[in-house]
Amino acid sequence: MHLFDKDKILQTLIQACTKKKNNSDKLIADQPSPPVKKKSNQTLESLYPVNQHSIKALTKNALTSIADSGVSISRSGSVMSHSISFARSSDESSSSTDILFPDEECEADRMVSQHYTLRTAFDGLDFSAPILPLLSQKDTVVLDIGCGSGTWTMEIATQFPSAKFIGLDRKSLFPRDIKPKNCQFRLFDIIAVGGQVHLPFEDASIDFIFQRDMNWGLSESIWTPLMREYFRILKPGGWIELVEPDIETNRASTYENLLINKLVNNFYRRQQDPFVSKRLSTFAATTGYRRIQSDFKSMPLGWGFQKLYCKKTQKTTLRCSEFARAAAQHRLDLLQSLQHWFLSEGHISRSKFESIINRLPEQWHKNRAYTNWHRTIAQKPFFN
Question: Superkingdom, according to UniProt (predicted)?
């Protein structure tokens, strides 16, 4: 059994944003949610009871399930080790990503959950570039920049065993032993030296470059050199795909805006662009790419519901959209993972931070808050 067969279990969790072939169950995502009693410290779980097959419980075992899907164990002996921080200039001495996300284990769990939530948000697709014919060819090479836990890399490698997949990240959150034979991971740190970025690949050697949620560790000045470097290593006709979230929550409460404003100011202080998600297509256009396409998906934070009709019982039941619940949980996990920074550099007390976090689910539900994820694909021209 392939991993994608098991992934059907996950898709039943978050069926709120997928089109269902069975007409007996009809989804209405935009209808008003059932009334909720106001509580000062209401949690996400109290607002939306967690299904026993919750996305968090299932994604926890997502990586280990690869071993049960017929994928062979491969040991990598060619791992490059670097100790400098991710995506910084050569003279910087501290890592913004280390300060923002100090707990590597929690961050790995969050990225796995994020992977499945985004898959559902983008209509069940893991990429949008038109590369399906390429993925069936043996000489195709796919590069996953900032691969994190390696979930995206391994799942696509399992689905397309003919192509070769390489994941790069500055931290070894990815598995070293249990992974598809056509998948490898390398420790590598993206740095800018003299205004240039160099990746360890030959000219015109990569068919597809995938990069997601990397802006937490990229300085504003590194984006253009990095896009030029992608252009260098891409084969003529090769594609890039960039996926980044808005840092802000739409229809956010005053309490959440307090946190986000501090975070935005921190980005500027570290010479990072907090709003780069809206400029992805501009970076692609100014560095020579063509056939640029951009879109975005909105993720409702715990509001909207599923209306399920059962023909046998002729009864209709309502429950919170599993996708909306997962999106809200992911947003909470992100903000909670930043607690260390908010307490140490954001000058917020622990009690105040926890009070804000506890109020968010009810406020999201009341305001119909949502976040946007932006996606841009672009192609390197066949002829310069």
Answer: Eukaryota
- The CATH homologous superfamily for domain 3-379 is Vaccinia Virus protein VP39 (3.40.50.150)
Tokens in use for 349?
């007390």
Q: Is pLDDT larger for residue 157 or for residue 6?
A: 157
- Residue 315: count other Cβ atoms within 10 Å of its Cβ: 9
* CA–CA gap between residue 364 and residue 303 (Å, rounded): 7
DSSP 353: H
Token pair for 272: 């990072």
Distance (Å, whole) CA 256 – CA 23: 39
What is the distance between the terminal CA atoms of the chain, rounded to a whole angstrom? 44
CB 377 within 8 A of CB 352: no
Contacts of 187 (CB under 8 A, 6+ apart): 79, 80, 81, 82, 169, 170, 171, 172
**Alpha carbon separation from 137 to 103, 133, 162, 163, 382 (Å, rounded):** 39, 7, 6, 6, 19
Q: Which residues, in sequence order, are bridge partners of residue 373? A: 245, 297
**Domain range summary for the chain, segments of one domain joined by +:** 3-379
Beta-strand runs (E) in the chain: 88-89, 141-145, 164-169, 183-187, 191-193, 196-197, 206-212, 234-245, 290-300, 305-310, 315-320, 370-379
Segment 380-384 mean pLDDT: 87
Q: Give the start-end residues of each E strand in 9-140.
A: 88-89
Q: Write the pLDDT tens digit of every residue in 215-237.
A: 998 999 999 999 999 999 999 99
Q: Model's pTM, two decimal places?
A: 0.75
pLDDT digits (tens, 9 = 90+) for 116-151: 999 989 988 999 999 999 999 999 999 999 998 899
Residue labelled with tokens 């059932």: 34
Any idea which residue has 């969790």 for tokens?
Answer: 13
Amino acid residing at 320: C
CA distance 224 to 233: 15
On whether the CB atoms of residues 292 and 241 are closer than 8 A, the answer is no
